[in-house]
Amino acid sequence: MYGRDELIVFHGHKTWDDLPKSPVSLIPHSFRRYYIGDCDYRDSSGGLVLITDGSDKASCYVGSPVTQQWVKIPPPPSSDPKGDSTVFGLVTRLDEDGVVLSFKVIRIASYQATNDYLSSDLGVLLYSSETGIWTSKVIHSPHQIGNMSNINLNGTFYFGCLSVPGILLAHDFYSESDQFRVVQLPDYPDYNKDYKRTLTTSGGFVMYARTLAKKEETVLKIWRLMNNDDYSWELLWEVGFPITGNYAPMAMHPFDVAAVYLWSQRDHQLVSCNLLKQDYTILGDASNDGHQDCFIDKSVCKQNLDEDLNFQVCIWLFQFVIPRWIESVPCPPRAEMIDTTSLLSYAAATHGRMMKDIEEEEYFWNEVEHGRI
Length: 373
Fold this sequence. Notes:
Elements: E1 8-10, H1 29-32, E2 39-45, E3 48-53, E4 56-64, E5 69-73, E6 86-94, E7 100-114, E8 119-128, E9 134-141, E10 150-153, E11 156-159, E12 167-172, E13 181-184, E14 196-202, E15 205-213, E16 218-225, E17 233-241, E18 247-252, E19 259-264, E20 269-274, E21 279-282, E22 294-296, H2 298-305, E23 336-339, H3 340-369
Antiparallel strand pairs: 1-22, 2-3, 3-4, 4-5, 5-23, 6-7, 7-8, 8-9, 10-11, 11-12, 12-13, 14-15, 15-16, 16-17, 18-19, 19-20, 20-21
């Protein structure tokens, strides 16, 4: 997914025959497209999805589109008296089998530049499913965060758009630390203005992919961030593909570390590269159902991606993968559990009240303008 838009849809599960082919279709349409007052997809982790309510910014929900169980997350505490915090993200903790043990909802309360705009502080509110309460913390960064575009994996968020090149910022929201960790990119300071780079995940790891267009081929290099305290990188692939033009890496397959997807700005097409076989396939548009296991909305790709190819490290897509096991959503103490139908009904009612308030306000000012009040 790209923000609220779905770009690439994979299916092909072999065990859950009663589920629809497309995992995205499990998320009701109003969760994926933004209309004032409707529920809005915000983030996903461990197969769970974080939904916000467009009519009530204090409300959000965490649930499973498969089991259709949703936890209504209570509003932030008095430490957010003005209600200025914004729903930001979701992290989960999994056991060895991939079952979700707990989750945390993250709201951004503040962002402040420090030390003459060289560093910054990020204030967050955290809701834990284990305790059912909100806590707050301020996370200190040695650098400015250019924007909040990120990926998250295993409880850690990674930010790539920073005030200095060649690094990422990482923070584990299950840790007690109040500091961002600086992760140096594996190719820094090897800088070339023609590099196209992205940060994504695959096979349980953070992946860093880079392309370089040459005269007769596109060279693709992929590194894996090791799950250790040193945040070291391992070069997995360096492959040349006989395709020319401006190809940028978009994402990798969630499970297959030998499958990477490139977007052609010139030809407006998505290419699937098999790194083991060193071959590639041009993938079709979502409107052409050729009984494939992947569909692409080219119009959305063109609209959202062509303008972004000059970012230093692009974070294109946010993966939503259905959970490996049909398990109940962790229920926090004193939390309210509702199903999808109830959630949509609540959102519709909230939207109705908001629209009525808007109409009444517009009527009032129209009467004032015409001198009737």
